[in-house]
Amino acid sequence: MRKSLRLAVILVIFSSHALAAKGKKGAPAEPVATLDQGEDPTAKEESEKKAAKPQPETDAEIAAREAKADAAEVKKRRAREKFGLFANVLVGFGKAPLPRPSLDDGSAGKTTSGTFMAGGYYDLSPDFTLAARLPWTVGSQRQADGGNQTVTALGALELMGEYRVTISPFTRLPILFGLGVPIAQGTYNDEAGLRQTQLNMMADAASGYRDPELFGPKRLPLIAGVGIDYQRKALSLRAATKLVLGVKVGGELATTADEAGTYELKGVTLRNVTSAGVSYDFLDRPKLFGAVDSWLAYNAINAVEYTSNIGATSPTRFQVVFEPRLGARLGKVSPSIGYIFPIGGRLADTSTSGLDLHCDFTF
């Protein structure tokens, strides 16, 4: 009886351990989450993705980011040096239009000229600059007898000021003003002086009537102008207009009348030059650029005005000129080459043009 009882207890204990072990083997390691028991892991992942998605920028943030980019671009632009010098050689071809009645083109003999000009600038402040330049011309002119006459003539010394008004980080408004020292050589009442006057007229013509303040004998030039300059990345745009008033300080005409007409030496001359241009840096290393400049010159009052007695038609007072240029910026040195050619007008009638060689040196 006791043995049967002991055997029964042993069987019960063994059976209970076996059932417990079986129950543990079939149970999952962790309870499976249900909609009633807890959060769905997929929903939690989607929620984290939405939280990580960047919010759209506000107008203020966009403006701040663009302003920061503009400031960085302005900082990268080639800085203007405080002091600079330049040298320029203008080789002129053609004939200088003369102030006289004529049934032909009314010009001097065929001339080849070379105008050598030097100058420089100094920035008194980031917005205000003083500058000066002085030309000297040598030329060989064909004479009526078939020979050539070599002549030299000094131009006027020009003293200029420029004040730049900043409109935006990329746009400035330069205001120009200046005067000339009346040392340009030439007269109207003797043969030697007349040759120098004609040579300065040739230098003025070869430059496309762009700078009358430099080539008027016995004139005190007064200059005033305004422009606009835009530069961003590789592109530069510019436009300007200036008035040049030449006040007579001496000289007389050798004659005021002949069979061709009557002549008057004016007390003042007046010319307006309105220009526009574009340049583009098409190569960064070395830095190369191409440019095109154009201008319209209007001769409102010439130094000598005349009335024709021979039925000659007065030439137009307007002149349109173009100058394509190619240049480079090589550290502190910036050479360029351009060709000045007229579109219509008196300069086209006399086939007058100029090869323009220029070099800037900055410090």
How would you describe this protein?
It is a single chain. This protein has 5 helices and 15 strands. It has helices spanning 2-26, 41-52, 59-76, 191-206, 345-349; strands at residues 83-94, 111-125, 128-142, 148-154, 157-168, 171-181, 219-232, 235-248, 261-265, 268-283, 287-301, 304-308, 318-329, 333-343, 353-362. It has 363 residues and is an alpha+beta fold. It has a single domain (81-362), classed as Autotransporter beta-domain (Lipocalin, Beta Barrel), CATH 2.40.128. A hairpin with a 5-residue loop joins strand 3 (128-142) and strand 4 (148-154). The strands form 2 sheets. The protein has a 12-stranded antiparallel beta barrel with strand order 1-2-3-5-6-7-8-10-11-13-14-15. Strands 9-12 form a two-stranded antiparallel ribbon.
CATH overall fold name? Lipocalin
Net shape:
elongated
Strand residues, percent: over 45%
The count of domains is 1
What's the helix count?
5
Class based on secondary structure composition and strand pairing: alpha+beta
> What distance lies between the first and last C-alpha atoms, to the nearest angstrom?
124 Å
CATH class: Mainly Beta
- Residue stretches low in confidence (pLDDT < 50, at least 5 long) are 1-5, 18-38
Radius of gyration: 41 Å
Mean pLDDT: 85
**Main β-sheet: number of strands, strand sense, barrel status?**
12 strands, antiparallel, barrel
CATH-derived architecture: Beta Barrel
Total strand segments: 15
What is the helix content?
10-25%
